[in-house]
CoB--CoM heterodisulfide reductase iron-sulfur subunit A family protein
Amino acid sequence: MTEVVATNETILVVGGGISGLTAAIEAAETGKQVVLVEKRPYLGGRVTQLYKYFPKLCFPTCGLEINQRRARQNPNITVLTLAEVTDISGDKGNYKATVRISPRYVNDNCTACGDCAKAVEAEFDDEYNYGLSRRKGAYLPYRMAQPSRYVLDPRIIGTPDADKAKAACKVDAIDLDMQPQDLSFPCGAVIWATGWQPYDAARIQPYGYDRFPNVITSVEFERMADPNGPYAGRIVRPSDGREAKKVAFIQCAGSRDRNHLLHCSRICCMASLKQATYVSDAYKDAADVTVYYIDLRAIDRFEDFYNKVRAIPQVKYVKSKPASIVADKDGNPVVHGVDTEGYNRYAERFDLVVLAIGMEPAVPKDGFPVPIVVNREGFIEAAPENGGIFAAGGASDALDVNRAVQHATGAALRAIQVVNSVRGMEV
């Protein structure tokens, strides 16, 4: 059974992505006790699913590994994975949190050898790769996952596959009798770092995401380009595996639209410019990339990156929000629209179309276990009514990784001030 030792000077961090991980580390390294709750089986969040960062086009694994190590080695941090906060009661400086932990069916004996996965036959869509590949019913979420322990999918519990996994384990790490567990503990402040989720592209009916396999989202394309991803880094058409040399990127797919997301997600332009380099690097002079855009948002330090990508001759830009996408008899997506500079109609055929979908809060407005002030888009506001509950990173707004980390550090400082004031009152 998991136990949590906490007081009203403990800081609860909800969400173990880059923002939650940052906030937890910053608070813990000042000597504060932190309970870090993450609903996935591992820490790192959506950053772990990125191939490269913009503007430097470096890999997230380096900085992520450092933060994972800092968290792992800090005795002030208690990590609860496969866990969700179900209730928060009380007031600033004196909260009581209730957390439900779902069973992993794998205990601390696990050495991540993978024998259980070899024994299991059942396969499921791999959520880490956004369903672009399949994984076993016993799995390590990704190669750098922390904690470095396998997970049994609950759908195999009670089936012969579960027994096979248990029989294959040489270190007695498979525990098929694990049950959900509810924990309640005190805390003085809460950092809400549940991040963002990609907007559902299937809701943008004219673009045919749910009908045409060669229309994919920007987050799926990120996994496609990753050498450790479902296509081993090959830029291809999901329908037939052929090389996708002619690629369209459609900006503001569902964003700045009264029928979908009203807000601009800020990072989509830079993400698509970054992804355009994936195609040009993969196919060199044979690459043919078109970026359809309303406006290109490249501010501050991103201006140089924008100019660098703009200079790539294989990448061209059309100022337009495409009206629709259809597919020809060979499965090629055909983009229809009118450019807003020359007002010329176009019907352009591509190998692959990538929708730059927007960011929306991972927790819906009515999904919080405590009253909290959110804005029109569902992001958490910095409001006095929230008491000792502070948003961090993508829970507060659509932010890139750099700004999310900065924001999380600020949230940690505010939470530290709250628990310090508790100590002051007790003295």
Remarks:
- The chain has a mean pLDDT of 95.
- The chain has three domains: 11-102+180-195+362-426, 115-168, 199-359.
- The first helix runs from residue 18 to 28.
